Amino acid sequence: MTETDYYWIVLCKNHGFHRRQNLFSPHKIALGETDAYACPPYLGGHFKVKCDDCGEEHSYKPQDVLRFEIAPPESFIAHPLFSDLPLSQEKRPA
Fold first, then answer.
1. Which domain holds residue 52?
2. How far is CA 31 from CA 4, 20, 26, in A?
3. Which phi and psi angles does 52 have, rounded to 5°?
4. 47-50 and 57-60 strand pairing
5. Residue 66 within a domain
6. Three-state secondary structure of 46-93
7. pLDDT in tens, the chain (94 residues)
8. What's the number of domains the chain is made of?
């Protein structure tokens, strides 16, 4: 069984690029680690995120942020707005 963790994510807005890869599931951009119970962080307004797959940068609203259970992304670096969250600072066990 694959190990999964909870992450705050947004869905990439470059639908044309990602639809060619997977028609039924939009590309999820991991922003920061969380757990199943944490409240969404206060973000204070629009923020920009660069997609780790297609490279495009788009603006997102705080309500675009979702909690999602995914396999830990390879070489994951938390988005600056999410890097101060407690779970994003914890060291993952080796």
1. 5-89
2. 15, 23, 15
3. -75, -10
4. antiparallel
5. yes
6. CEEEECCCCCCEEEECHHHCEEEEECCCCCCCCCCCCCCCHHHHCCCC
7. 457 799 999 999 998 888 887 778 899 999 999 999 998 888 989 999 999 889 999 999 999 999 999 887 788 888 988 887 666 544 444 4
8. 1
Structure tokens at 84: 């101060």
Do the domain assignments include residue 52?
Answer: yes
Is residue 17 classed as helix, strand or coil in its secondary structure?
helix
Buried b (16+ CB within 10 A) or exposed e, 19-51: eeeeeeebbbbbbbbbeeeeeebebeeebebeb
Name the token pair of 59: 């603006």
Collapse the DSSP code of 19 into the 3-class scheme (helix H, G, I; strand E, B; otherwise coil) and give the result: helix
